[in-house]
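> call design_seq(struct)
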């Protein structure tokens, strides 16, 4: 069983039932974003990284401000993994009534390593 799998099987039905659009977490000392998935199956891929009315939560693991970075990603990159990196950085989120813009920005070079939108209409 993968790390986090017991939590996912318990919490995922609740997040889908109540229309959670994004789930932010940390701990793994890396950055990784998942496409919206249900039971490990991608249910939606955004067009140009724009997700309109996501059918499941977009999971973001961001824990890249710590003392070390984890460099052990599952290879090859799974279909559910939209973006990942093991660089130090921070999240930048802008929110209004209908849109969320989220960026993962590297701290050394200020480069945007990932960017996506959630749009509700």
């Amino acid at each position: 069983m993968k790390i986090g799998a017991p939590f996912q099987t318990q919490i995922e039905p609740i997040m889908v039932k109540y229309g959670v659009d994004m789930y932010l977490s940390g701990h793994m000392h890396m950055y990784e974003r998942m496409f919206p998935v249900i039971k490990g199956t991608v249910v939606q891929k955004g067009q140009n990284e724009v997700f309109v009315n996501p059918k499941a939560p977009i999971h973001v693991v961001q824990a890249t401000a710590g003392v070390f970075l984890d460099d052990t990603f599952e290879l090859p990159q799974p279909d559910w993994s939209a973006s990942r990196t093991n660089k130090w950085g921070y999240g930048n989120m802008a929110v209004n009534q209908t849109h969320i813009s989220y960026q993962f920005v590297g701290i050394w070079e200020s480069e945007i390593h990932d960017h996506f939108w959630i749009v509700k209409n």
